[in-house]
Design brief:
Helix 1 runs antiparallel to helix 2, helix 1 runs antiparallel to helix 5 and helix 2 runs antiparallel to helix 3. This protein has 6 helices and 5 strands. The strands form 2 sheets. A 3-stranded antiparallel beta sheet has the order 2-3-4, covered by helices on one side. Strands 1-5 form a two-stranded antiparallel ribbon. Strand 3 and strand 4 form a beta hairpin. By secondary structure, the protein is of the alpha+beta class.
Length: 250
């Protein structure tokens, strides 16, 4: 006889999985809130004075919000049939990887924008306007070392139209750029967390499935049906009466 094989179904989700589903929903709702702020700030300032503050953050936030809404919609549709089961974690790995890498690019762009605002404050507000073109700010007292060891004055130019000067001096615009950076950081942290968790879920799903358990069966003393036949024959022989031979002793 061969050992019996029985298939045991996978274990039911633990309580920790349910808590993670709740945490994931909270993270995704937070992502939607951050996307709404980024979309609002980017949309309001994208084509304002041609500065293009949201040229990069606007499409990234829109795609991020669309994917998050799709995940929440799938969770809602499956709440009765498969509670807590959303889009396949393998798809989440690819999507969250693209999203958080794109958010790094958006964050870098926002930081460069803020650095540009800071570096433009002095030239636009302190330098003189060029007589030939008022869109250019000029400074004539820059001292540099010449090749012969002496000093000479150079003229520096900085392009700063009047509307851009008004924009960088606007306190609301400066606060909007800072807010944009802060919410991009929060979005990146949220989707990096979701990416790591999607990797864990994919690994668990790939390593899961039915578990085969092997139970050894007790073997008979004499192998196979042959032993049972011999035992029956032995019992049959034992039940016969053997007649005694009559002997004569003289």
């Amino acid at each position: 006889m061969y050992p019996q094989r029985r298939s045991r179904p996978p274990a039911s989700p633990a309580a920790g999985l349910c808590s993670w589903v709740g945490a994931k929903i909270v993270l995704q709702c937070g992502s939607l809130a951050c996307c709404a702020v980024v979309l609002g700030l980017s949309g309001a300032r994208t084509w304002d004075h041609g500065n293009g503050v949201g040229m990069l953050t606007l499409p990234i936030a829109a795609v991020t919000a669309a994917w998050t809404l799709a995940e929440l919609l799938v969770l809602c549709l499956r709440r009765n049939r498969s509670p807590g089961r959303g889009i396949h974690p393998g798809a989440h790995v690819a999507a969250q990887l693209v999203i958080f890498l794109a958010l790094i690019l958006a964050l870098f762009y926002s930081c460069v924008l803020w650095k540009s605002v800071q570096s433009s404050a002095d030239p636009c507000n302190v330098w003189d306007r060029a007589p030939s073109n008022p869109d250019w700010a000029v400074r004539n007292d820059t001292e540099v070392w010449s090749e012969d060891g002496g000093r000479r004055l150079e003229t520096e130019f900085f392009f700063c139209p009047e509307d851009y000067k008004v924009l960088i001096n606007d306190a609301s615009y400066r606060s909007e750029v800072q807010t944009l950076i802060a919410f991009c950081v929060m979005l990146w942290a949220i989707h990096f967390t979701l990416f790591v968790r999607a990797c864990v879920e994919t690994q668990r799903r790939n390593s899961g499935g039915t578990v085969t358990m092997v139970y050894p069966q007790q073997m008979p003393a004499w192998p196979g049906p042959y032993g049972e036949m011999e035992a029956q024959r032995g019992r049959h022989r034992g039940s016969r009466t053997v007649p005694m031979k009559e002997t004569h002793y003289g």
